[in-house]
Amino acid sequence: MDLQNILSKSALKAPFSGIRKVLEWESKIPADKWLRLNIGQPDFPCPSHITQAVCEAVNEGYTNYTSVYGLPELRQAIAKSTKAEKKGSYDPDTQVFITNGAQAAIYACLRTLLDPGDEVIVPDPCYPPYLTTIELCGGRPVPISTFKGESRFDISPSDLRQVLKGHSKVKALLLINPSNPTGSMYHETTLNAISDLILEKNNIIIISDEIYSRIVFEEVKTITQISKEIRDRTIIVGSFSKTYSMTGFRLGYLLGSAEILSTIKTIHHTMNICAPTMCQKAGVAALTGPQNEVEMMVQEYKKRRDYLVQNLRDIPGIECNKPQGAFYVFPKVIDTGMDGLTFSKKLKYERGVVTVPGEAFSDPSWQSPSRDYIRISYAASQATLEKSLKEINSFVQK
Ligand code: PLP
Question: Which residues line ligand 1 (CB under 6 A)?
Fold first, then answer.
């Protein structure tokens, strides 16, 4: 059987996420001793009122399909919490759409927008499944560098103007705020400039991935907080995964124009019919229940960020950004004499510390500076961070 001729070209060409590939690399340290700083998965337990809610939902018979849009009570709870966060008013009947995690939201959204040859402007570096999805839809990612900001990874408005001028097939601009992999948030002046530039165009929408927007360490805005006009041109991608440590529940959502969502409905229905019903009930419990555990997690992430940034900066050859949110840092390691891939591979092989090379977050054709970086996730205990830093320090200085 000639599988190369049976499998679709786009599926064969679509890159598998480099975040997962690192687990396949060799290490002389046994896997149960690895210090895992590779995965963006909260190390805190899911709050017990949420796990109880999912069990109760099953026992109460929430085991059937819901509407394709999701349970009305969950959509209402999302609309209410979005308004409380000052991100705008969304009609729970037509402008809130529940998905199987942000990942399915992203796929349904891009599959709805793109025809073959269409372009999406994506930040470089960027969450890798966006690149895979664009490829699977026959589209083309157009990078916009975030390596030029002085104190954070940010978009330069003049770069965006240039990119918009040079590309006539752009359908969407993707913002990831806070960013995976950098943890950076766009500056408010950047968001204002982006808003002005996009409003000058008739046929471009913004997809704003805000799945980390409750994990922030200072007051920073997202694009829909800039104005009603830009809100009407934006689709927000949201998720319960990180905020409530619910990654396995597969629960996310989209907020935006009723017309766009009613087209997304067809794609999402074809893939999923609906998000798991009992998990949607758990989502209601998450949003309407106590928020103190979320606040505790954010405080803890902030402490870890400060610890990690300060100690990484003390290691010769490492330059480290101080992120505003999420639970990642994106240090530059090239001045240690190793590029990100070599650093990451050797660190895992010799010391069992698992990180992700920066190049996993860029398309290889971009020749991106991301190859000089690595991503470290601090969704890991303080003890793991302390041991890892000791190992990284002696690895670099050996
Ligand atoms: N978007 C970003 C920026 C992410 O980092 C992730 C997961 O790491 C996702 C989307 C997918 O999240 P979910 O678990 O809700 O599918």
Answer: 40, 101-103, 127, 176, 180, 209, 211, 239, 241, 247, 252
